[in-house]
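Today's session is about reading a structure prediction critically. Students often jump straight to the picture, but the first step is always the sequence itself: look for stretches that repeat, for charged clusters, for runs of hydrophobic residues. Only then move on to the predicted structure, which in these notes is written as discrete structure tokens rather than atom positions. Here is the chain we will use throughout the hour.
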Amino acid sequence: MSSGTAAVGCTALGRFAIPQFVERFAEAGQPLPLITQLFANNYGLAWLGPALVVAAWLAGRARLSALIGSAAVMLATPLALFAAYLPLFKLGTLY
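Below is the predicted structure for this chain, in token form.
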């Protein structure tokens, strides 16, 4: 459940928030920060977390399933937030 929530959050940031930064940085002729570029191009990988949780659960590995779900939340959520907020800190230097 928690890895699914993280995947939904990553997808929302990747589809709705990041494209606005891409436009602004393109207008200013500046590249996005590298981490934000990587996230923008690969945010769909966050859906591997829920798939792995379900696969581990179906294989009878409940503890592994919980570990994967917890790791997905602890890694994907902070990375997504960092990738989304990093351009905000650089917006002041664009114009």
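Discussion point for the tutorial: The CA atoms of residues 23 and 32 lie 10 Å apart.
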